[in-house]
Amino acid sequence: xxxxxxxxxxxxxxxxxxxxxxxxxxxxxxxxxxxxxxxxxxxxxxxxxxxxxxxxxxxxxxxxxxxxxxxxxxxxxxxxxxxxxxxxxxxxxxxxxxxxxxxxxxxxxxxxxxxxxxxxxxxxxxxxxxxxxxxxxxxxxxxxxxxxxxxxxxxxxxxxxxxxxxxxxxxxxxxxxxxxxxxxxxxxxxxxxxxxxxxxxxxxxxxxxxxxxxxxxxxxxxxxxxxxxxxxxxxxxxxxxxxxxxxxxxxxxxxxxxxxxxxxxxxxxxxxxxxxxxxxxxxxxxxxxxxxxxxxxxxxxxxxxxxxxxxxxxxxxxxxxxxxxxxxxxxxxxxxxxxxxxxxxxxxxxxxxxxxxxxxxxxxxxxxxxxxxxxxxxxxxxxxxxxxxxxxxxxxxxxxxxxxxxxxxxxxxxxxxxxxxxxxxxxxxxxxxxxxxxxxxxxxxxxxxxxxxxxxxx
Length: 458
Known about the structure:
Layout: H1 8-22, H2 26-29, H3 33-40, E1 45-54, E2 60-71, E3 77-83, H4 89-106, E4 112-117, H5 126-140, E5 149-153, H6 159-173, H7 196-213, E6 223-226, H8 231-242, E7 246-247, E8 249-252, E9 255-259, H9 267-278, H10 284-287, H11 290-293, E10 296-300, E11 313-315, H12 325-333, E12 338-340, H13 349-361, E13 369-371, H14 373-376, H15 379-393, H16 399-424, H17 435-453
Parallel strand pairs: 3-4, 3-5, 6-7, 6-11, 11-12, 12-13
Antiparallel strand pairs: 1-2, 2-4, 8-9, 9-10
């Protein structure tokens, strides 16, 4: 549609889904689904607004606020809020589009949406962040609700920001409801919500490893390269270590920390990374300390993929398009057998093509197996859905209960994608099924069927 502005991130997400549907037998068996694809690719609603706030000097500042309410066929719009200077409508549309199908794969009653602002919380005081969040929620509160649209956190939005926004929503609407997820544990939050995306990612990869090895292998003894240093990366790393793997890297927007010994990161060192991020500082703060210098090298301005030596598993956990085609080839040369995205659309299309070509050209354990973000990182929104359920029932589940439900959801995500790929994108004998094709088709089919039942297409 030439009358629309160029939206590269959204177009990439759409083309990735559309191409896998086209290359499967879905449209041959169900030609009417072509119309559903056309309809689902247009958001039901986009809200844009200005956010005016004052900094600590009393100076008026202004940012742009957005909420993309993409699809509500399966339930209330559900998806995070991102506060980052890179935020624009293309990025939020791509994230919201991915969220539709990710949420469908969880099996929970959630539609897809995304929102945020080009506000940058880095370098801001808590008071400035609070004033911004109050102004942001003053407008957003008109468009959300527990049965309409339930945002969560994303990049730049932690429990602190969720608390500020929740408080303002409550004042404006005069009601306490589960309108935001990622809340504090003492006021409606779910246990292991902060850990859920990272834990879920590792649980998903466990099933990949188990399937390929026939149950003979696990994370034990595996070298794992992780990008990012936020919640997803931290908790994925901790779970890998708990399961016997070695984490050899973490990174942020300024550079990468790469282990120089076989020991890799310890839980205590990851806790130090977490504190640096809470303080809104960079990994360079740690890289210059004697204890880190002894075990890690800091590579300024670089992602970790080509600097880690031999590795078995790659977990992109930072942001979109963080693995290029060339880096994908370097990971294959480094021995990687499993790559799964903790970030949304963490691999460029060139990288996905490299991984998928290797899978198709090799059999079983000799191949690279790629797990797309919409399935592999669904654990975060899954536990957000569980938080919504707990809020509705006015109760709180134990950590063990939530973790067991998360494990079951990630197992279902894996096998749903696997079995759907076998049906609609049948691989050659001995070749692993395409998890990206299977996950795309499974999520799309569920949403399209619900839209059909609602009369959205016929």
